[in-house]
Design goal:
five-stranded antiparallel sheet, 15 helices, 17 strands, 48% helix
């Protein structure tokens, strides 16, 4: 914060790393994101995740002699179902299940639907869509056959369409915007309330601080309530116009995401006395101040815990550790953001219009110290949580979650760099203070004013970058965690010699046990029997290969190889050579990441 006299001691560090003592910590601060990336590269851990399908009955690609009486899917976490969560389509494309998707035997980790006893021969497609316990929809599809797998290729095409089915882009955009607004509002509300209570109680009664607190309170409440409503259509892949359907809201409220949302909304309402107290509505006595800071800290922490309960952190192995890391990360982030907002409130206003604290230098140093500690906690807790969600270098650089995390680390590095720049802007002011005290030198008023304006612009730039960080965080929350995504099968579709070649490699890991399935389709999307199909593997980076892929014929247009050994991890090249019935020959190469 500043003083009316630009040469007075009130000009103090405004961002982390801007303390008056120490010898050039800029390099150490800028090294923080590098350290984070290094730890991600060398460490591994246990990942929390969306619910993952573990087993199916009937099994995928199974050919049964007796028609099953039901389809049962089992997941590694709690899932929520509705009537459309599990659908089974017959050879003619019509739905054949009884429409009664439910938890068999009350097991909330499983989903089942009944089938008629007179199912005929042919291939069937099972499409599933459930709500994971962290509030995110997960879906997929697979094929099983009765009597014969004739028609399995066409069924696989239908299954592929169901597996990649997505909801309304508008719903996804609204859901993302609400996540972003909720994070930004929550961190600002909790952090600014805490920083005002700690460093500048009088500032809470200023109009500018009051407007920011009540505005962010409103944003958090609206984002929380609207988030519960939008979750229903988001999870059910329905258009935005169905957002007010009561049955969808009821389903969401029975999930952990919905219950955490209700808790957060209640805590936001309970935060009203804190805002009234900060605004001086209960007087300015020592007794009122005595209860205000503990209440602010307690309700702020409870809000952050409620937010952590609805995300990735509270699922998977060691959920208590995940929630603890998440709360530490959010708490530190709120202090960082709240401190920057408080400094911006002072730096961007004229001294004549913005009330100043009685001891501005001390107040600013207090905020600076809190921010400095917050930066350290953000880096440490963020690194630990990232290692927990990623688990390997392969997952970091071969998944959407991993690359989004790398982007977040780089943006946070820019944010820390801006903090270091702010420190450089005020170094001269601290030196000037020393000369005034020891030498009686007259202050360079114009120089200090210039530094103050530059410092204000830098703080605003930091807040702008914070909004970018929160936008990337909102993307991370919606992505499948990297460790889980890395375990998904490799799939690709290419066209050559007038036919479409669809390849699946599962699990695409180094060692034996990999399965490769190839489906060849005509231009009309029907199975295409070809005269020849060969495959080889190469690893150009280590000059390995070509290693032949022993493909066998499973049916018209369907070729497979089992127990394929891939010697080492790396980015392999999988090449298929196709000879069609018309005599055309084509060759396609696919980049196959193996971990």
């Amino acid at each position: 914060m500043t003083t009316k006299d630009p040469g007075a001691p009130g000009v103090a560090p405004a961002t982390p790393g801007m303390r008056s003592h120490g010898r050039r910590p800029t390099g150490r601060i800028l090294a923080a994101p590098v350290v984070v990336l290094a730890l991600l590269l060398v460490a591994s851990g246990t990942a929390a995740a969306h619910a993952r399908l573990v087993t199916t009955d009937p099994a995928a690609s199974a050919v049964l002699l007796v028609p099953p009486g039901q389809v049962v899917l089992r997941f590694d976490d709690v899932v929520t179902v509705d009537a459309g969560s599990l659908r089974v389509f017959g050879p003619g494309g019509k739905r054949v299940d009884d429409g009664g998707a439910h938890h068999p035997g009350g097991n909330d980790h499983a989903v089942s639907v009944g089938l008629p006893a007179d199912l005929g021969r042919g291939s069937y497609v099972v499409g599933w869509r459930v709500i994971s316990d962290d509030g995110h929809p997960v879906h997929g599809a697979y094929v099983f056959s009765i009597g014969s797998d004739r028609g399995a290729v066409q069924a696989a095409v239908v299954a592929g369409a169901l597996a990649t089915e997505s909801g309304s882009p508008g719903v996804g955009a609204v859901a993302g915007l609400l996540r972003w607004a909720g994070y930004a509002g929550l961190l600002t509300l909790v952090g600014l309330a805490l920083m005002v209570s700690v460093a500048w109680p009088e500032g809470g009664r200023t109009r500018r601080v009051g407007r920011i607190l009540w505005s962010t309170w409103t944003v958090v409440l609206v984002a929380t309530v609207a988030g519960i409503a939008i979750e229903g259509v988001y999870g059910a892949l329905l258009p935005l116009r169905d957002v007010l359907r009561p049955s969808l809201a009821d389903e969401v409220l029975h999930t952990r995401f919905g219950q955490a949302g209700i808790l957060r909304a209640a805590l936001v309402l309970a935060f009203v006395p804190v805002l009234l107290g900060i605004g001086g509505r209960f007087g300015d006595t020592s007794r009122s101040r005595r209860w205000l800071l503990p209440l602010t800290a307690a309700l702020g922490l409870a809000l952050l815990v409620a937010t952590g309960l609805a995300g990735h952190a509270s699922t998977g192995t060691s959920p208590a550790l995940g929630v603890a890391l998440d709360v530490v990360h959010l708490s530190a982030g709120s202090i960082w953001v709240g401190g920057l907002v408080l400094l911006a409130v002072s730096l961007l206003g004229r001294a004549s219009t913005v009330p100043q604290p009685a001891h501005p230098g001390a107040a600013t140093r207090t905020v600076s110290a809190w921010i400095l500690a917050a930066v350290a906690l953000v880096v440490v807790s963020g690194t630990a949580q990232a290692v927990r969600q990623v688990g390997s270098r392969y997952a970091l650089f071969h998944t959407t979650y991993g690359w989004t995390l790398v982007l977040k680390v780089l943006v946070v590095g820019v944010l820390i760099g801006l903090g270091a720049l702010s420190r450089r802007l005020v170094r001269g002011s601290w030196g000037l203070r020393h000369r005034i005290r020891t030498e009686g030198t007259h202050p360079d008023v114009e120089g200090v004013l210039t530094r103050r304006r530059g410092l204000g612009r830098t703080v605003v730039a930091e807040l702008a970058v914070v909004l970018v960080v929160l936008a990337v965080t909102a993307l991370l929350v919606n992505d499948v965690p990297a460790k889980q995504a890395a375990g998904l099968p490799f799939t690709a579709s290419v066209t050559t010699a007038g036919v479409e070649v669809n390849a699946i490699v599962d699990p695409a890991r180094a060692g034996i046990g990999n399965e490769i399935h190839v489906y060849v389709l005509s231009a009309l999307g029907t199975p295409e029997a070809v005269l020849g199909l060969g495959g080889v593997l190469r690893l150009p980076s280590q000059r390995l290969g070509p290693l032949p892929v022993p493909l066998h014929v499973s049916g018209p247009g369907h070729y497979y190889a089992t127990d394929v050994r891939i010697p080492v991890a790396g980015t392999w090249v999988l090449t298929f050579t196709v000879r069609t019935a018309s005599g055309a020959v084509g060759s396609v190469s696919l980049r196959l990441p193996v971990h």
